[in-house]
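Hi R.,

Here's the chain you asked about this morning:
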Amino acid sequence: MTTGNRFTSKTRKTIPKYLTKEVIEHILDKAKKDSFRNYLVINTLWKTGLRVSELTNLRKCDIHDNAIFVIKGKGSKDRIVPLEKELDTLLHMWSDRMSTREKLFKIKPRQVRNIVYKYDRDVHPHTFRHSFAVHCLKNGVNLRSLQKLLGHDYLQTTQIYLDIVAKDVRDDFDKVDW
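And the predicted structure, written out as tokens:
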């Protein structure tokens, strides 16, 4: 009897690419000098972990009580994503003169990709979602809370980010001069 790997290639997941906080801040600095809207789009992706489709469907009425209420996200699920204070202020300033049901950015997914590529050709918009997840884990957010923030059905989907954090721990440990 032979024993093989019981996992098929479909069940194996690759470790997602992510950006460090320093790289994201560099991208944000470039965007801020160029366009407030672009800065706000990238900052929202980074600090909320929203999917591009959720960002493009975001309306003024979805932002209140220092949170974004994601209505009908992937799989038609709703969730609440807390907002960092500065981003909450910026989003309210941006939407101040908009009607309640108006879309915040009035852009399509392709335009989001173009905005991100303008500041770094090697970065995909979804990379900010991965970066959000890794940053949250590295700063003590527990896996179950992260699952809720990202809107994942299964904890196993969220666990892929633990592999990234574990690799970073090893890389940091290897830097120690013994």
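The longest strand covers residues 67-70.

Let me know if you need anything else.
M.
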